[in-house]
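Hypothesis: this fold can be encoded by more than one sequence.
Test: take the structure tokens below, design a sequence, compare later.
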């Protein structure tokens, strides 16, 4: 099973996991890491390391879903890729997280990362698009 780490600025990731549990129930192999204003880079790196050990104790592979490209959660996760079998996907949102947690046993890490990116892109639509399709 592919582990999942949600790493975000502030409590956003914790709230996503709370909402996920409301929809899907309890989940294994999932961890959230909040970058708080008082956190040093070193403290956040330690949080990320603990989350990786929780979500992927066997070191078989995990997805790190971060809130934005170029932010501290992204940068720390990218450094971790050098030492662990991790893949990083930016732009975490609820549809992405639901897909990841519900389908993570069906494929290998690299293929799954590509599927997650595609599903996330497809989940972003506008009312104008929907009205044109249905009208």
């Amino acid at each position: 099973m592919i582990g999942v780490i949600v790493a975000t600025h502030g409590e956003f990731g914790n709230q996503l996991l709370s909402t996920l549990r409301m929809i899907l129930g309890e989940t294994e192999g999932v961890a959230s890491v909040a970058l708080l204003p008082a956190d040093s880079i070193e403290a956040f790196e330690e949080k990320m390391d603990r989350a990786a050990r929780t979500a992927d104790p066997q070191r078989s592979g995990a997805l790190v879903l971060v809130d934005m490209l170029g932010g501290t959660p992204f940068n720390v996760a990218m450094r971790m890729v050098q030492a662990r079998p991790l893949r990083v996907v930016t732009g975490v949102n609820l549809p992405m997280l639901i897909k990841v947690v519900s389908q993570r046993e069906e494929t290998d890490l690299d293929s799954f990362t590509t599927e997650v990116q595609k599903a996330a892109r497809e989940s972003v639509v506008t009312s104008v698009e929907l009205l044109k399709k249905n009208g």
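The chain has one domain: 3-134. The chain has a mean pLDDT of 94.
Hypothesis status: open.
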